[in-house]
Design goal:
- This protein is an alpha/beta fold and 189 residues long.
- The protein has one domain (2-182): Leucine Aminopeptidase, subunit E, domain 1 (3-Layer(aba) Sandwich), CATH 3.40.220.10.
- Helix content is 40%, strand content 22%.
- It has helices spanning 39-48, 51-63, 99-116, 136-153, 168-184; strands at 2-5, 10-15, 23-30, 71-75, 81-88, 121-124, 160-165.
- It has a seven-stranded mixed beta sheet, with helices on both faces.
- A hairpin with a 5-residue loop joins β4 (71-75) and β5.
- The two termini are 27 Å apart.
- The protein binds ligand AR6.
- Ligand AR6 binds next to β3 and α1.
């Protein structure tokens, strides 16, 4: 079990299919168009049913595309969740196009939205490390640092922040980044 405990709650890692998770919110690695795609996006729309796309279309009509580094909320259709938070990560293009801060912003936006909606649990996939080709070592560090710093520093309703990684290799990368972070965190004297 890979867990880092903070004052607010736990950040944990597991291998699995995010569409099978039970949580208040499941995060989707979406694109700016918000109208579905492959990877985890395709899996969430398939498993959750058509109501998720209908809500995404309404959001598109209302506010246009969702920029990278941001996120929007819909219901979760038939998933075992109350909400899907559709987060748009950056497309990797070498690392000099603000990809790191944009990825951190996408995670922060999800954590802030979950808090705004008074949610206790949230599941993240590894945003941007599939079709968007963000190197997973660096993405994992950014993802975990953003969540740890949020859970340590902010007043939040969140108690359970769960990363659901799709392969053993991805889980191993996240686990070693989490271990590094755990060793740098000092308990108060
Ligand atoms: N559960 C958990 N993780 C999954 C699942 C699943 N069911 N399926 C895939 N992954 P990607 P991105 C992992 O490509 O890089 C889409 O077409 C996958 O192994 O889904 O942010 C969107 O519409 C990888 O580790 O998202 C966008 O156009 C991670 O999820 C674009 O891809 C993210 O891979 C977004 O690209």
């Amino acid at each position: 079990m890979y867990v880092l405990t903070t004052d607010n709650g736990a950040i944990s890692l597991k291998r699995g299919d995010i569409t099978h998770e039970t949580a208040d919110a499941i995060v989707n690695a979406a694109n700016s168009g918000l109208l579905g795609g492959g990877g985890v996006d395709g899996a969430i729309h398939r498993a959750g049913g058509p109501s998720i796309l209908e809500e995404c279309k309404l959001i598109r009509e209302d506010q246009g595309k969702c920029p990278s580094g941001s996120a929007v909320v819909t219901g979760a259709g038939s998933l075992k969740a109350k909400f899907v938070i559709h987060a748009v990560g950056p497309i990797w293009s070498g690392g000099n196009r603000n990809e790191g801060p944009t990825l951190a912003a996408a995670y922060s936006k999800c954590l802030n939205l979950a808090t705004e909606y008074s949610l206790a649990s949230i599941c993240f996939p590894s945003i941007s490390t599939g079709a968007y080709r963000f190197p997973i070592e660096e993405a994992a560090k950014i993802a975990l640092e953003t969540c740890v710093s949020f859970m340590r520093g902010k007043a939040t309703t969140l108690q359970d922040v769960r990363f659901v990684l799709f392969s053993d290799d991805d889980l191993a990368v996240y686990a070693s980044r989490l271990e590094e972070l755990s060793s740098t965190i000092k308990s108060p004297a």
